[in-house]
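Bumping my old thread because nobody answered last time. Still need a sequence for this structure:
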């Protein structure tokens, strides 16, 4: 099962990131990492509701590369939002890759 998800994650990354060193594993993110995110970015299916009600951007379904670079920008301080900087500061490269894989696979 783990293997399958790794392959899926790879497949979804392949067309946006040809030279990704860290391969995201959506299953790892789903199991233990998204708990930090759902309080604000909501649960799978978030995209189906009315986005204008929320001030938190939709991340499900965005490209893995975009999510990854956004999180790295928060971690570095290039993006300034305080709570996202706090969150991203606690993430490793692997965490970011896993989360990006997970959210990019949401519809
Ligand atoms: C405390 C609430 C909160 C939590 C928890 C949180 N976020 Fe966010 N997130 C936000 C807000 C608010 C923004 C918009 C910030 C801005 O304007 O820069 C944001 C922005 C983002 C963006 C950029 C989206 C875009 O369209 O540019 C990404 C990617 C993201 N969050 C991922 C995550 C992930 C992954 C987690 C869990 C590890 C997480 N966030 C946890 C509130 C939160």
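Sorry it took so long. Here it is:
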């Amino acid at each position: 099962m783990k293997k399958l998800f790794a392959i899926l994650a790879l497949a979804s990354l392949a067309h946006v990131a040809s030279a990704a060193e860290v391969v995201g594993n959506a299953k790892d993110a789903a199991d233990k990492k998204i708990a930090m995110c759902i309080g604000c970015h909501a649960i799978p299916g978030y995209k189906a509701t009315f986005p204008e009600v929320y001030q938190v951007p939709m991340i499900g379904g965005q490209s893995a590369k975009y999510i990854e670079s956004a999180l790295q920008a928060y971690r570095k301080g290039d993006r300034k939002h305080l709570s996202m900087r706090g969150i991203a500061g606690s993430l490793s490269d692997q965490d970011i890759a896993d989360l990006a894989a997970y959210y990019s696979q949401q519809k």
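Residues 36-37, 39-41, 56-57, 59, 67, 70-71, 79, 81, 83-84, 87, 99 surround heme C (CB under 6 Å). Let me know if any region looks off to you.
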